[in-house]
Write a structure and sequence with these properties.
single chain, alpha+beta, Helix-turn-helix domain-containing protein, sequence-specific DNA binding, DNA-binding transcription factor activity, transcription regulation, HTH_AraC
């Protein structure tokens, strides 16, 4: 058990990494109170430390992992009903209220490879490597990360073979570049496992892009205000 409110940095990061693994493996998303109790910290200290290391709240990290499972299940051919329960949504009403935020399109369209959708995409670089962001008219539908931009584009094509992919949109590329540059925090979570860092970074970019209306060129202050981050 850890020492409340006095853990060294390395121990704090180990606790946060363990909490992320707990979230990923749990059938039911643990509450912040349960996660804090598991390491003997106060809820406030655990919440503050988790956010400092990942840039997310525990609830946001859990939502990111759940949404990733949903996208994987639909892309793998699961029915919408099977996918929503496999991802951990407790009811269809909760799922459909959240679907646009998680998928950027109707679940049936996502399952069918983006049938009928036009997707704008932009490719860039971040501290974790190459990044590709794609959006439909409803919102963000993919944030892919890896070593090679060409491989990310092939991945996007494989995920949405029936969608029309639109690159070279200067306004969209600028918007994505601004958000990625803002979301990158050089000192955040550098000693966390790479997959945890990737999940957290993707979620922060996803949240920021959803918060900024299309066509609106934003300053860093605008982005910070939109996602409730310190300016």
């Amino acid at each position: 058990r850890c020492r409340p409110d006095a853990a060294p940095v390395a121990e704090a990061r180990a606790i946060v990494a363990a909490a992320c693994r707990h979230i990923e493996q749990a059938e039911t998303v643990p509450t912040t109170e349960e996660l804090a109790a598991a390491c003997g910290w106060s809820v406030a200290h655990f919440h503050r430390t988790f956010r400092a290391e990942t840039g997310l709240t525990p609830h946001d990290y859990a939502a990111a992992h759940r949404d990733g499972r949903l996208r994987a299940a639909l892309a793998g051919g699961a029915t919408v009903t099977a996918a929503l329960y496999e991802a951990g949504f407790g009811s269809s009403s909760r799922f459909y209220a959240h679907a646009d935020r998680a998928l950027g399109m109707q679940p049936s369209a996502y399952r069918k490879g983006g049938a009928g959708e036009s997707l704008h995409f932009a490719v860039g670089q971040c501290a974790l490597g190459a990044i590709l962001v794609a959006s439909s008219g409803r919102g963000v539908c993919a944030i892919l990360m890896g070593d090679a931009p060409d491989a990310l584009l092939r991945d996007l094509q494989d995920r949405f073979p029936k969608a029309t992919l639109i690159g070279g949109d200067a306004e969209y590329e600028q918007r994505v570049a601004q958000v990625v540059a803002f979301v990158e925090a050089p000192g955040t979570g550098l000693d966390l496992p790479l997959d945890i860092r990737g999940t957290a970074f993707q979620r922060r970019v996803w949240t920021a892009l959803r918060a900024i209306p299309p066509g609106q060129v934003s300053t860093f202050r605008d982005v910070a205000r939109a996602i409730g981050a310190p300016q």
